Amino acid sequence: MGYMHRFENNNGSKGSYLEGQVWDNKADLIALISSDGSHSITLKPNSSLYNSNNPYWSNGAGDGNKWLEASTYVEYAAGAYPGGPLSFGANISSYTLDNRYTLKAFIKEFTQQYTLVNSEEITIESSVSEFNMSYTPSSNANVIQYGFILEGLNANPNKDWGAVTISSTSNDNSLVYQEVWGDEFNDSTIYQAGKINVIDGTKWFHQTKLPNGRSWYNSEVQHYTDETANSYVSDGTLKIVAKRETYTDQGQTKEFTSARLNSKFAFTYGKVEVRAKLPTGSGTWPAIWMLGKNITEPGAYWEQEFGTTSWPACGEIDIMEHWGKNQNYVSSAMHTPSSYGGTINHGGQTISTASSKFHLYTLVWTPEKMVFSVDGNVHYTYNPTEKNKDTWPFDADQYLLLNVAIEPSIVSSFKTSAMEIDYVRIYQLGQALNSKTISNQSSLHAWVNSEGQIKIHSTLMLDAIRLYDFHGRELIHQRPYAKQIAVDGNAYSGILILKAEAENKRWIRKILIN
Prior knowledge:
By secondary structure, this protein is mostly beta strands. The protein has 3 domains: 168 residues, Jelly Rolls (Sandwich), CATH 2.60.120; 250 residues, Jelly Rolls; 82 residues, Immunoglobulin-like, CATH 2.60.40. Helix content is 1%, strand content 48%. It has 1 helix and 36 strands. Strands 12, 14, 15, 16, 17, 19, 24, 25, 26 and 28 form a 10-stranded mixed beta sheet that branches. The chain has a 7-stranded antiparallel beta sheet with strand order 13-18-27-20-21-22-23, with no helix packed on it. Strands 3-4-11-6-9 form a 5-stranded antiparallel beta sheet, with no helix packed on it. The longest helix has 4 residues. The radius of gyration is 27 Å and the shape is globular. The two termini are 20 Å apart. The N terminus is likely disordered.
């Protein structure tokens, strides 16, 4: 379990309801998170609050006289989980809490304005050794919280009234996805404030080569360029700019330019979030989408090393497409050998401010299904009954593409417009590892030893390992062809991402170097 401290204290009719604050700068609830790798938290009433000179807090008998209601919980955006029911459970390692207090575990759902949608709670009794909750989030929730709440009649104890220690039932640190790659477009070491900046080439590749030597697919009429005029970062956002201009490249002259970016990160399963504001103009065609890393497409970033499979057998995932001729509508689609081009596998929703405000476009990709949403509102789920190479080529790495295409029907009045992206984030289920914890996956173990070496042991022959920093920059790429390897980690600190491959299996691990 992972915990974030948040305190709610209801201090009676004369007091205030405080969130994230404490009365008289003193917390009613003490929540102590273990630092010994045991994944436990100890919850207890704070016994250092009593003030006999304060008549409001003292009932004359050495006790407080107000109701205590304090909690500590984790909060995250709805959708930041792998899909299906949430499971929240733990072992009760010790229980010495006085019977005037009650401890409960809870899961709550809220709207974006923090109006309660649904909730579920269970009381943790002194007689039990564990608890488990299972909860299926509703479709209209934007925020989910899970954690513990302590209640009781004595809000101001003058002595130790006991505690409850709760330990994780596994090495899993969290119910939520953890970010493994992304771009916030605000790294001050790369981008200068108030300037037009070239995009980060360690993360993105400009795809400019005409795949057939003459034009792009779908009768598009633009050239994609690597010019700063068509793609740049400024004021914390990425701009992909479509323009009307005469441009000659590769022996072809066209009247429009734009940009098409490939991510230098590919992955299998996870969650993609892109916060974007879309261009305007009938004939513009912005897209946030994905292709199989194995695609045989001339000029694509991954093609030269990994290209073995043509489209649509490689699989295509359209997270967001928007056509300027249908200004207030966005859609998602899947292209596979069973249905492609004018695919039957699609869905969408009306977004009246698609081009005037930023919206969050999300894909949750699991081994079972794809779920597409905008601002947390799901509009399409792809979950074929039979999964085979024709319906589900999605158990292998895909990479992300960002582009704005121009259709032949572009209006004559069009001059220029941009897709603006606030951030790109990719999450996967994973575990933070340090020198005292190792992965609970039997086929791959990774840890940091006392000498600063990253030790990687597998039951299979390791074909390749890659180590990335938290911004997605590749630090190490080795092909060891061994079951055990040690990598010197002394030059690095913080959270690193380890990607390992062995006999067609892939693992991603987070490694923490202190």
